[in-house]
């Protein structure tokens, strides 16, 4: 494997590309195991929410990518939501639009919804034509679909699919219908003209349910909805934030109700987002109670998993792994005693009074790679001089301080 892109990501402090995640993530065995268990549970016909809470740089996005990677292996469809998707989240239909807009399926360029619908419509088209059936209106098309398949019940999805199929049968463009389902605003009169009287705002969950049924018909076992960077809800206006948290609560209830199967949603955010009394999840007692244990103790069955700083042993493993890959990518030799010095230096620098590591894994790996870079550029400089070069971590620190001030 070419590890260069991994180092590029670490240098800028971004989550590394998905193909490196499995080997790079240290000290998150419980979390990884939970994800694997969840995916099995979901593929066997259930739905589930999992929440990971951890500070900046503790590896939330990395875990989300791990879930993504595992879901891809299982052939699932993924919808990855992040900060950019939450501006309008207080609106009823926004969750569904965001899910649809961000859909990806491994091996397919662009949004797969089009491919699902076209595949389905082409098949129906042929059946209809071969049987000599003539469908003259959208209404007749819908009656045909409802009779033909037990998977459809009348509602937005059936209406939408009928409109879609009717257009395909008549060689008309489906662009506007696709635009609607991907979240663009489309004139309601256009929708009504095409037999669509239910809208995402009222029928979103049924729509999603029907969508997962359609997915299963083409052997896609489930849908992973990642909701990363949920701390951005904190910055919403308070009335909009309340509405957003109520939407989240509805999501928890619906996914737990057994009404929908094959949906796994992973939520990620900072402790501030979760625990703040005024702006966090805690401010919505009903939602908070659904996601937390009464005892406050965490087990592998808990919905909420808190990410702790990784242990000293895992930092050592991480540094060793990075050194190994670094030498390969940059064709340099970093002898074991230098590696040891780097490790000792990092621990010394980042250890709290209790002996625990008190900074993010992001900061540690970034700092380690910067030291490797210095060694590479200055092969003859003694290690002590290299370690004495001041590394400016003020940006990270500033971010942490500003977050703490929010409390
Ligand atoms: N458990 C871990 N083991 C190794 N490196 C980690 C771990 N967690 C985070 N990192 C490093 O920190 C970087 C940023 O992590 P990221 O997942 O973006 O954190 P967050 O989303 O919590 O801010 C990763 O690319 C990786 O280099
Ligand atoms: Mg992140």
Note the main attributes of this structure.
Rossmann fold, 19 helices, 7% strand, binds adenosine-5'-diphosphate, binds magnesium ion
Mean pLDDT: 90
* Cofactors and ligands: adenosine-5'-diphosphate, magnesium ion
The main pleated sheet reads as: 6 strands, mixed
Structural domains: how many: 3
How would you sum up the global shape?
elongated
Strand order within the widest sheet? Answer: 3-2-4-5-1-6
Explain how this protein is built.
The chain has 407 residues and is of the alpha/beta class. Helix content is 56%, strand content 7%. Helix 5 packs parallel to helix 11 (200-217) and helix 7 packs across helix 8. The radius of gyration is 25 Å and the shape is elongated. The two termini are 43 Å apart. It has a 6-stranded mixed sheet with strand order 3-2-4-5-1-6, with helices on both faces. The chain folds into 3 domains: 28-105 and 220-306, Rossmann fold; 113-215, no CATH class; 312-402, no CATH class. It has 19 helices and 6 strands. The model has no long low-confidence stretch (mean pLDDT 90).
């Amino acid at each position: 494997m070419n590890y260069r892109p991994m180092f590029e990501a670490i240098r800028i402090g971004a989550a590394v590309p998905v193909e490196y995640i499995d080997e790079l993530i240290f000290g998150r065995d419980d979390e990884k195991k939970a994800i694997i268990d969840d995916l099995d549970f979901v593929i066997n016909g259930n739905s589930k929410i999992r929440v990971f809470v951890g500070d900046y740089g503790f590896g939330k996005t990395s875990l989300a990518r791990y879930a993504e990677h595992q879901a891809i292996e299982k052939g699932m469809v993924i919808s990855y939501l992040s900060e950019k998707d939450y501006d309008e989240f207080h609106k009823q239909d926004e969750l569904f639009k965001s899910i649809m807009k961000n859909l990806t399926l491994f091996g397919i360029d662009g949004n797969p919804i089009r491919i699902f619908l076209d595949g389905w419509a082409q098949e129906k088209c042929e059946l209809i034509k071969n049987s000599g059936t003539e469908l003259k209106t959208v209404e007749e098309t819908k009656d045909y679909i409802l009779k033909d398949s037990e998977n459809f019940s009348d509602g937005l999805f059936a209406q939408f699919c009928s409109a879609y199929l009717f257009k395909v049968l008549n060689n008309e463009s489906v662009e506007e219908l696709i635009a609607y389902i991907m979240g663009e605003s489309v004139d309601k009169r256009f929708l009504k003209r095409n037999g669509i009287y239910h809208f995402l705002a009222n029928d979103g969950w049924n729509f999603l349910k029907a969508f997962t049924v359609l997915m299963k018909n083409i052997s896609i076992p489930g849908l992973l909805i990642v909701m990363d960077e949920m701390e951005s809800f904190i910055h919403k206006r308070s009335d909009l934030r309340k509405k957003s948290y109520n939407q989240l609560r509805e999501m928890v209830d619906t996914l737990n109700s057994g009404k929908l199967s094959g949906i796994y949603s992973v939520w990620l955010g900072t402790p501030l987002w979760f625990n703040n009394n005024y702006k966090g999840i805690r401010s919505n007692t009903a939602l908070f109670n659904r996601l937390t244990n009464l005892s406050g103790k965490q087990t592998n069955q808990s919905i909420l998993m808190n990410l702790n700083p990784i242990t000293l042993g895992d930092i050592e493993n991480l540094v060793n792994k990075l050194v190994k890959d670094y030498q390969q990518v940059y064709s340099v030799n970093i002898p074991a005693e230098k590696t040891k010095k780097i490790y000792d230096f990092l621990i010394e620098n980042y250890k709290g009074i209790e002996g625990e590591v008190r900074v993010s894994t992001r900061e540690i790996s970034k700092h380690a790679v910067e030291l490797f870079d210095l060694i590479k550029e200055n092969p003859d400089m003694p290690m002590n001089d290299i370690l004495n070069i001041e590394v400016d971590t003020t940006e990270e620190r500033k971010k942490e301080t500003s977050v703490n001030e929010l409390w």
